[in-house]
Design a protein that fits this description.
617 residues, five-stranded mixed β-barrel, five-stranded mixed sheet, alpha+beta, 25 strands
């Protein structure tokens, strides 16, 4: 099966702590690069091409999901409705929800494509319907992204459509092979209505058909049947994000395949790339497919092996076949990934354990063909060269423990970013229980002596799947709120936010240490180097426009985001450059999971201490 979900009873790793092929490749490219992006959570500039690739893949998958036996070429892009899934990615049963293909009437056999050329014409017209809305969705995501860069007007819709059509042509090669092989070894099982436990998405429920497949014919397989039988498994565009993974039986690794062809009886894994393939990343794609071959092997009782690995370069229409690893090589890959997981994920490594030691660049020509490496270092292309010791940055302390700010009568003490802890464990009694959703209160008030704090439930489940609210929420109940995010709102009220790392339990263990609500440090002063700045804006539910600004700040001990309403920042924000040394005073704290964020308010202050372009204050 292409999907193997976690066993919640035996999963001691959790969804936030698994290894992946992309993380492994990032670490091997440069340990410090991995550290900046996965531990410090630096986000690289989001250029349109990154979003275009997702739109192309979505359009390809939406065409593959449809059938020329049910959907006419001229139908609207939403002719096949949304497939129903639970939030964890499991498909809904027919008793729960109606699947979109169930209500469709099949065309008569003479109304269906009779040749490969007719299939190509149908699929191309379907692509013309699906690509524009996919591009529009990605443009909306890009415009909302705080790190958006580049110009969406540079996106060429025709080139995008060409890439989708190239993928369809490659798929039709498989369909033709299936047609020439008279449907392959699974023809009769398919005609009788049998379905894989995780069938290729087609708008039908996962259960088998009681009276045979509605498009089944007799005798020689038809082109429409070949399209249906050859359809690869892929991530259904309607499925919740990040739920269609294959997870290692021991839960420390996960991966998500693009396409898996199974009609011949031997699976072939395909990686879709909306690119030409003429850069260093082509080496990563080969490594990724070898890792996926290992993942398939270990998730099939170490018996089932893939029969092929392919990279489809859609920007330079070509298929690159990757040599299959042997069992011994897959076991070596598994051992390497397990070692990396222990190094990087079982416990968070320190920055010094991830040195700036980049791998040499590799050269590839269009189509992912190896060639001479480029005459440049990896650091020259790195987004973080201005703050990394291998570039013009430093790991050393840039500021003393306190600074004298202009206009201030006394020195301002600075706190190390690495020492920030936004979480607090607080005990008290529930004073009020507010808004309920699915039986879980999302708003409560905690009383501790004469003091009160608002409880805000941002997540109803913990990272391990257990409920965050693990006590009957009723007024007067004595509770212990573990690891809540301690924040102060604009009114000066204490807000205790519950995310996947927090839990509300009965206060039945007096040995657990807790904070007094008014003993917790609410405001902080930080100093360090500006990694990048960002701005984001939008329209709220009430129709009112909003705008926020922020920056990523790094010192010798750690890094964090500092964010606030655009109007609250002083004029020095507009002067900031990457590499500037700044002090920011009177900040609140916020967090989500392991990511810490500082809140900049109208009472906060930004002061540039040293410019990146000069050493003058």
């Amino acid at each position: 099966m292409p999907v193997r979900m976690a066993d919640s009873q035996h999963d001691e790793v959790g969804p936030y702590n698994r290894m992946s092929a992309s993380q492994a490749n990032a670490y091997k490219s440069c340990p410090r690069l991995w550290f900046y992006q996965k531990v410090y959570r630096f986000k690289m500039p989001q250029i349109p091409v990154l979003f275009v690739g997702r739109a192309v893949e979505e359009a390809v998958c939406r065409v593959l999901r449809e059938s020329p036996g049910f959907i006419s070429a001229a139908s609207s892009y939403d002719a096949l409705g949304t497939s129903p899934y639970h939030q964890d990615g499991t498909p809904c049963a027919v008793e729960e929800k109606t699947w979109p293909s169930v209500g469709l009437m099949p065309f008569f056999p003479n109304e269906r494509p009779q040749t490969r050329e007719a299939l190509m014409t149908w699929a191309t017209e379907r692509a013309q319907h699906h690509l524009p809305p996919a591009l529009n969705r990605m443009q909306e995501q890009w415009e909302k992204d705080e790190r958006k860069a580049g110009d969406w007007n540079d996106v060429d819709p025709k080139r995008c459509l060409d890439m989708v059509v190239s993928a369809i042509a490659f798929h039709l090669d498989e369909v033709e092979r299936c047609f020439n092989d008279n449907g392959g070894p699974g023809l009769e099982a398919w005609r009788s209505g049998q379905r894989e436990p995780w069938p290729a998405p087609d708008g039908f429920p996962h259960q088998s058909f009681a009276t045979g497949h509605p498009l089944a014919g007799k005798g020689q397989v038809s082109w429409t049947e070949a399209w249906e039988i050859a359809r690869p498994w892929f991530v259904d565009p309607d499925a919740p994000s990040f739920t269609m993974n294959a997870i290692h039986p021991d839960h420390w690794f996960q991966g998500e395949y693009d396409l898996v062809y199974r009609w011949s009886g031997t699976p072939v894994i395909v990686d879709l790339k909306a690119s030409v393939g003429a850069n260093d990343r082509s080496g990563d794609y080969v490594d990724q497919l070898n890792i996926y071959a290992m993942l398939w092997y270990v998730t099939h009782q170490r018996k089932g092996e893939v029969g092929g690995l392919q990279i489809w370069y859609l920007g330079h229409p070509s298929i690159k076949t990757v040599d299959l690893p042997s069992v011994e090589e897959m076991e070596a890959i598994e051992s390497e990934m397990k070692t990396l997981w222990k190094l990087l994920k079982s416990e968070t490594p320190s920055r010094d354990e991830c040195p700036p030691e980049p791998r040499l660049m590799r050269g590839f020509a269009p189509g992912g063909k190896p060639t001479s490496p480029p005459d440049e270092s990896r650091c020259e292309r790195c987004d973080w060269r201005r703050v990394c010791p291998s570039g013009s940055g430093t790991d050393e302390r840039r500021l003393p423990s306190s600074v004298q700010l202009p206009g201030s009568s006394q020195r301002t003490p600075l706190q190390d970013i690495g020492s920030l802890n936004p979480r607090a464990t607080v005990r008290g009694e529930l004073f009020s229980v507010g808004y309920l959703k699915d039986g879980v209160p999302l708003k409560m008030t905690l009383k501790q002596g004469l003091n009160k704090a608002h409880i805000q439930v941002v997540s109803t489940t913990q990272s391990d799947g257990s409920p965050t609210v693990a006590v009957p929420a009723m007024k007067g109940v004595r509770v212990l709120l573990k690891d809540a995010v301690f924040t102060i709102n604009w009114k000066g009220e204490i807000i205790l936010k519950m995310d996947p790392f927090s839990q509300l339990v009965a206060d039945d263990d007096p040995s657990v240490e807790s904070f007094d609500l008014y003993d917790y440090q609410a405001k902080h002063n930080l100093g360090g180097t500006v990694v990048y700045t960002y701005q984001k804006s939008g329209v709220g539910k009430t129709g009112k426009a909003w705008s926020r600004k922020g920056l990523m700040l790094m010192d010798h001990s750690g890094a964090c985001k500092v964010e606030g309403w655009a109007d609250d920042w002083n004029h020095q924000f507009t002067m900031l450059e990457v590499g500037d040394v700044v002090v920011i005073g009177n900040l609140g704290l916020d967090a989500w999971a392991s990511e810490i964020r500082c809140d900049y308010s109208r009472k906060s202050r930004l002061q540039i201490i040293e410019r990146a372009s000069s050493s003058t204050a």
